[in-house]
Amino acid sequence: MRSFQVYQVISNAPEQLEIYRFQHPTAGYTTPTTTYRRKNLNALMWENAGRIEWSSSTNATVWFGVDEVPLKELRKVKNSTSQSRRFKAVKEEYKWKIAENGNDLFCIDSKNKHVAAWSAEEKVLRVAPRYVTIIERIMITCFLNSWFKQLGRW
Q1: 64-100 residue pLDDT tens
Q2: d(Cα 95, Cα 75) in Å, to the nearest integer?
């Protein structure tokens, strides 16, 4: 699950546009790093966008370019009974919640506006267009939350 591609779907277009690649080594590493690359659509080249340095399967440091963020800052819990996981981006707070079906995730902003939704069955993340400026934070926090949910450590 830690190696995957991200595509932009354009309405009425015959193909999807690959815009991110996540790569995680599968063997031979005690503390592996998941790297992610972004496609520069002007130069049509892949650029390093960031990485997740895993110290264990449940602890990591995430790099968004040069910004270093501890995993716990991307999955904050308000209190011990909280069912949401919070993160900040551009001085705003967002939270991921488990959908009613128990499998999917959805993200809302501090005003309860829809930001994104993850379909576990389809393996599709849909992001509202107005949040494209924080797409990497949304993708990474979605990936981390689905990873922890899969491990039974929501």
Answers
A1: 999 999 999 999 999 988 999 999 999 999 999 999 9
A2: 9
